[in-house]
Model the fold of this input.
Amino acid sequence: MVPALRYLGNACGRAHGGFPGGFSAACSPALGKPRPLCQGGRRASTRAFDVVIIGGGIVGLASARALILRHPALSIGVLEKEKDLALHQTGHNSGVIHSGIYYKPESLKAKLCVQGAALIYDYCNEKGISYKQCGKLIVAVEQEEIPRLQALYERGLQNGVQGLRLIQQEDIKKKEPYCRGLMAIDCPYTGIVDYRRVALSFAQDFEEAGGSVLTSFEVKDIEIAEESPSRSEDGMKYPIVIRNTKEEEVQCQYVVTCAGLYSDRISELSGCNPDPQIVPFRGDYLLLKPEKRYLVKGNIYPVPDSRFPFLGVHFTPRMDGSIWLGPNAVLAFKREGYKPFDFSARDTVDIITKSGLIKLASQNFSYGVSEMYKACFLSATVKHLQKFIPEITISDILRGPAGVRAQALDQDGNLVEDFVFDGGVGVIGNRILHVRNAPSPAATSSLAISGMIADEVQQRFKL
Done:
């Protein structure tokens, strides 16, 4: 049984229109299919839904799918700001199906990851989506890492991770002939998959069940619809208006936001709490040249530093046969800044003034400098990689892709590590559910998360 959602407990719900006392049950319409609203001076292109999901990444699409499969009579729409779906965190994902070993026992991360991994494997089998259960070694290369490795093994057992075992040097060589290490955790349940393909399959399921996906719809405002006499016959059926940057509108009864890198801003648009703030961290990957791919068979990870949510530079095979090395973790000066010099003045100002980044940086200065150094100098990353596979040289690698992680940060500079969901009170707040923090392993956990969100939506909105 998954525990109840963690809420921020804030009030939210500024009202831009009428109905200051909120909406009574008598004003709620019968739930049904979307229809254009041509009344009250609005464009004929305005659409109305029972439920709208903002965000077309893997979590938003999984949630939309779960909702429409449970409630086929509802009209449900997904709004995505890009021209296509799953382009950002989902599309830049390492592709690892995590087993759930890393996360604090009894946390949502641990429970959802263990459940989600099983669900992802089942879903891929059902849909014929290719994956590889290639396993993972978490390798201690220094004597002082062994106690942390053993503690991690115990944590994995507590979390119910399948097939874990501690192995010594000779068994490491059997699994990964070119890898050196003193001791390792063998985690055979870890796999790899193309998460964007999975997300697009979720979208296909959703549309085939009657859902609607609206792309190129960048949300600019969320507000209460103004009362209009022309609507008096049916009452205010769809009280929430979502407007995009082209001044197009969608109306709905309820909203679920899964906005990833923009989760704080979307929450603020609806009048809810802007905290925790999102701080973007870019992760740069290197690529192992094709002629050197034989050096790596499965995932090879270092023993993680529990002070940070990042798992360290690791070796990750991909579904296309390539091998990714990385990532580092450096501050991005743009929320979708995949290149080192991508910059947004607004994003940078928000990072500095609204979040607890300054406190985080002061507490972890040496770590930040080290990550920046590795980002600038390939030799520093290669030196780290050689701790695990000594045969790798700088001539064996190329610069590869990058991703940007939406890391939630509180005002005290603490990294928010678990899933956070935000509901509020007031006119809008009673009709909205924000997924405020869905960190890695959100892709692995997406089907488990979607089930939990569907439960909460059903209970909260009394569908």
